[in-house]
Amino acid sequence: MISLLIFFPLLAAVATMLVPQGAKNAKLVALTAAVLEFILSIAIVFQFNPAAGRQFTEDYWWVASLGISYKVGMDGISMLLVLLTTFLVPLIILSSFRHQYKNPSLFYSLILIMQSALVGVFVSLDGFLFYVFWELALIPIYLICLMWGGKDRVRITLKFFIYTLFGSLLMLVALIYLYLQTPGNHTFDINALYSLHLSASEQSWIFWAFFIAFAIKMPVFPFHTWQPDTYTDSPTPGTMLLSGIMLKMGIYGVIRWLLPMVPLGVHEWGTTAMILSVIGVVYASCIALVQKDFKRLIAYSSIAHVGLISAGIFSLTVQGFQGGMIQMLSHGINVVGMFFIADIIMSRMNTRTMSELGGIRNTAPVFATFFVIILLATVALPLTNGFIGEFLLINGIYQYSTWMAAVAGLTIILGAVYMLTAYQKISLGEKNKLTETFSDITTSEKLVLVPLVVMIFWIGIYPKPFLDIAEPSVKALLSVIHGAG
Amino acid sequence: MLQLVWLIPVLPLIGFLAIGLFQKKFTGKSAGIIASATVFISFVISCGLFFQLSSAQTIDYFDWINVGSLKIPISFLIDPVSIVMLLIITGVGFLIHVYSIGYMGHDEGFARFFSYMNLFIFFMLILVMGSNYVLMFAGWEGVGLCSYLLIGFWFKNNNYNKAANKAFIMNRMGDLGFLLGIILIYVTFGSVRFSEVFSGAAKLPDNQPVIVAITMLLFIGAMGKSAQIPLYTWLPDAMAGPTPVSALIHAATMVTAGIYMVVRSNILYSIAPPTLEFITVIGTATAIFSATIALTQTDIKKVLAYSTVSQLGYMFVALGVGAYSTGLFHVTTHAFFKALLFLAAGSVIHAMSGEQDIRNMGGLKKKLPITHFVFLVGVLAISGIPPFAGFFSKDEILAMAGVQSKPLFILLAVTSVLTAVYMFRLYFMTFFGSFRGTHDQEHHLHESPSVMTMPLIVLAILSALGGFLGLPSVFSEHHLFKNYLSSSLTVPSSVIHSEPSHYFEWAMILVSIITLIILIAITYNRYVKKGYVTPLAEINFSKTFKTLYHKYYVDEIYEALIVKPLYWLSDMFYKVFDLKIIDGTVNSVNKGVNAASSTLRLMQTGNIGFYIFAMVVGVILMLIYNLYGK
Fold first, then answer.
1. Per-domain residue ranges for chain B?
2. Which of A431-440, B218-227, B418-427 is least confident?
3. What separation in angstroms does the CA of B579 have from each of A283, A287, A380, A440, B572?
4. Fewer CB under 10 Å: which end of chain B, C or N?
5. Are B209 and B53 in contact (CB under 8 A)?
6. A382:B141 CB<8 A
7. Nearest Cα to A164, choosing from A212, A132, A231?
């Protein structure tokens, strides 16, 4: 079942690649595949039993001599992230329909390969398999940014690639070290790695090796400087993949591969990680205040949001963890929405500089309404998805440290400041020569925005189904961490 | 009746969705009529609750946020406190909706306006009906959103947009305090539901540090929402919104949410005497401070706005001295007369073709007879002249404050005097003397249509008679208002427990009436007989007047102390820290690698990216080979 979920997009990618060059069908093939994948994941949700913990496990030897297995399975945490992936990818593909990308069959097949790798990351239960999927996810996004990116793409993607690869190699070293500590015939099996009894000093450096790898991916301050350039310069579908789904690999990594693996290391360094995350929240929010380019502003705001998720997770409380889960979904939905809004503006106006815009609401009221809704979700207004996540996260952080919660909470003020100011500059006021030609959104754009908005309110008003999927797994994981620490 | 409770907020929500989603389908006045109707039905149901309900009821609907031991249902609490608020919100709200049908009649955003208004009513109802702090917070932030949307309703004007942003952001500052307070409540009591929190608090002694912290944090939220020092400057700016919005949101309902919240949490506040003292200080300071500013303002709405800030200060003083029902009583009478004053001011502005500066008005008495009459009722009510509504509630606050502390009493009495002065100044400058506007304006002067004057008359009746709900003990044994609420309220043990003596009350009533008559005579002499008009040019202002006119330069001080440094710091973060230091370090590492690679270049092409890519692909291919090769 899960293997189908992983490899179906890969097969579809091959099919997409085979669509002759120049034909328009590539995107339709890709979209159909992504929709089928989504339906498949929904079918799995209906069979999923949250209380049963890890399920649908498949375990085959891959390289038996090295103790590497193809072992996959899903608990509630994986389930939600897989759902996020399968929900967003079709929308990302659909959102790109308005552009004519050169060499579309390659472009869309890369997106599907990426999806394959992302699902693989979220379900892998073998250290090596996890690493392979982790790296596999990097390649298509690297190529997407490199081949379809903006002016400065070569320099920026190279930096992005080296930076994240540096992190991955640290993780690989840590994984191999753990592997070598397993008794008897060494294995990468996650259960074996969990049950290692390492000394505190070993756990400390492994903590850092993993943490840096994951912190770069998210990114957490001060490992974030590749992110604004990359987000800004990538083609929008690439930015959406990076911010909507790929950064969750980092958070997922922390949850699955860092916290339960080295509880003593977490005990020693968790506070440091929280402090970095909280600094990042305020630091990135402040920087977002002074951005002139809207896409760059979203990039920095994303750093702030991810910092809050990271801090909530490291608080090791049920509320912080569950808040992190909900906020991963919410952030994925909202940031994709925001980047889509930015893309609509960019493609109509050929600029993202906010001071050149203004008054868009006059000519495009429907667009402005979607913009406001996604904005409100981003600033965590109650009854939107953002509130559920941020409330739980700040709650979790508070239980860890009052002061950190107060500082991290500044995001609710600063977020409102930069988002409302941006909205005012772009959308309100009198229209100018440039924006008077702004046409309201088309049906295909609505097809992307409506599902996002539905999810914003669904999670905001009735988050129970999502919370229920994750809660037993979160509690089980926390008891592993607390039990060992 | 209880089965219908959910309809109270849901009806306006449906109104919002229907009008908001299908704006273009609502032609003519239909949007206004539907929006008014939803609020009216909610009002009728609220009345039903008022007559039928004998005890507090909690009605659970569904689970909202359940995580671990944190359980937050969507659930409503109906008790006397929430019923009073329901009646004010839906009752006054309905009248303002009807009025708006006339006031906004020619606006191109007519349907949009009513959709926002209905959304506001929805959130306000959630705020007062929610049976736990998080649901209350949802309403709390929701009304802030509607306030933002309606202040910036005329979004083409960027000054209005700035005022809207300011309101939202300042409220958010308070909201952070509120949110942390809620979390501390959860950490302390293991629940955010009123029933559990209050029963837990009832067992605690006075002066627990954690309770003081909770109440202080919650009060920070109230300072933002109810415009108290230092978070009050958004409210005068909020007058950028259409006048019915000022009446509904920024006078009668939303800004009293802070008072509602404290009254709702009275069990917590009663065991936190330091917080009560703090509230008294803030309330008194705000009351007198903003009253002095109101003395000099020349915009009809700004005068009323500062007067609102001042009256909210009064209400907080009542709460601070533990007289919760008195605070809520003043909320009620204030809702009547301040809504009346704003709507009457709207009628004046409407007649004056949008003019708001009272220096350009004058002599409107004859042209706008109904508006003039109801405005006078409002002025009498707010100035505290018996038997109008404001007299009773304000008198009660003064009396309760007088029992606690004489200096407090004197400060409030001075504020009360100032209130009468600025209100009569406003009244005389607007309606008496000769007309000072342009010929065009004079030509267009007209009384408002009956769809606007009818709500005014109803509000005038309420402002005139509403005070009899709470007759002081010298007149009657039965304080209807207080008795109705008593089951939901506590009395702090830290305050002095004695009813003001009858002798004291009589003296107070007499002195206040005499003082007011003298004051009115003086202002009449100055503004009507001598025809004094505040000069248009600032050069002619005295120094004190100028300082007051510029609101003590508080906005400028905030700009210099908070806004500018924040942007400066952010700029430093970005340009120095992020681009130079952090990214510079990263790049120099990269350069080191590049330097090394250029050595390798002698043998290879030197593109690191390509090599790493090739390496990873190679590893994967090897593994795949391994898998299938066996």
1. 276-542, 554-628
2. A431-440
3. 13, 11, 29, 37, 10
4. C
5. no
6. yes
7. A212
| φ, ψ for residue B366, nearest 5 deg | -75, -40
Contacts 24+ apart (CB under 8 A), B144-147: B144/B168, B144/B171, B144/B172, B144/B175, B144/B225, B144/B254, B145/A376, B145/A381, B146/B116, B146/B117, B146/B119, B146/B120, B146/B249, B146/B254, B147/B120, B147/B171, B147/B238, B147/B241, B147/B245, B147/B249, B147/B250, B147/B254
What is the C-alpha separation between A482 and B414, in angstroms, rounded? 61
Asked if B534 contacts B359 with a C-beta cutoff of 8 angstroms, the reply is yes
Where residue B630 falls among pLDDT bands split at 50, 70, 90?
very low
B111 and chain A: CB distance < 8 Å anywhere?
no
A287–B573: do the CB atoms touch at under 8 Å?
yes
What is residue B320's predicted lDDT score, i.e. its pLDDT? 93
- Residue A371: predicted pLDDT: 96
Helix (H/G/I), strand (E/B), else coil: A155? helix
Give contacts of A475 with chain B, Cβ < 8 Å: 68
Over 60: is that where the pLDDT of A243 sits? yes
Where is average pLDDT lowest: B67-76, B305-314, B415-424, B551-560? B551-560
- Give the separation between CA B62 and CA B171, rounded to whole angstroms: 29
Q: Are the beta carbons of A463 and B586 separated by less than 8 Å?
A: no
DSSP-derived secondary structure letter, A132: H
Residues A181-190: pLDDT tens digits? 888 888 999 9
In this complex, do A429 and B155 lie within 8 Å of one another by their Cβ atoms?
Answer: yes
Neighbours of A410 (CB within 10 A): 17
Q: A358: closest CA among A276, A290, A423? A: A423
Instruction: Calculate the alpha carbon distances from A365 to A127, A361, A437, B164, B408 in Å.
Output: 50, 5, 13, 18, 52
Interface check for A434 against chain B (CB to CB < 8 A): the answer is no
Contact A417/B at CB under 8 A: yes
Contact flag A428-B64 (C-beta cutoff 8 Å): no
Those of residues 153-182 in A touching chain B at CB distance below 8 A are 157-159, 161-163, 165
Alpha-carbon span A39 to A42, nearest angstrom: 5
pLDDT digits (tens, 9 = 90+) for A67-112: 899 999 999 999 999 999 999 999 999 999 888 888 888 899 999 9
Comparing B607 with A256, the larger pLDDT belongs to A256
Residues 274-313 of A with CB under 8 A from B: 283, 286-287, 289-291
Of the listed ranges A17-26, A155-164, B505-514, the one predicted with least confidence: A17-26
Residue in A223, A279, A412, A420 to test binding to B, most B beta-carbons within 10 Å: A420
CB contact under 8 A, A462 and B161: no
Q: Tens digits of per-residue pLDDT, B176-222?
A: 999 999 999 999 999 999 999 999 998 888 889 999 999 999 999 99
CB-based contact B158 A142, cutoff 8 Å: no
Task: Write the CA distances from A78 to A46, A124, A207, B276, B397, integer angstroms.
Answer: 15, 9, 22, 49, 59
Cβ–Cβ gap B141/A381 under 8 Å: yes
The answer to whether residue A346 neighbours chain B at the CB level (below 8 Å) is no
pTM above 0.90, yes or no: yes
CA–CA dist B94, B343 (Å, integer): 13
Counted across chains A and B, CB pairs separated by less than 8 A come out at 165
Share in percent of chain B as helix, strand, coil (round to 5): 75, 5, 20
Contacts of A361 in chain B (CB under 8 A): 155
Helix (H) or strand (E) run with residue A56 in it: strand A55-63
**CB of A220 less than 8 A from some CB of B:** no
Any idea where the domains of chain A sit in the sequence? 1-255, 262-485
Q: Which two tokens stand for residue B533?
A: 């008009």
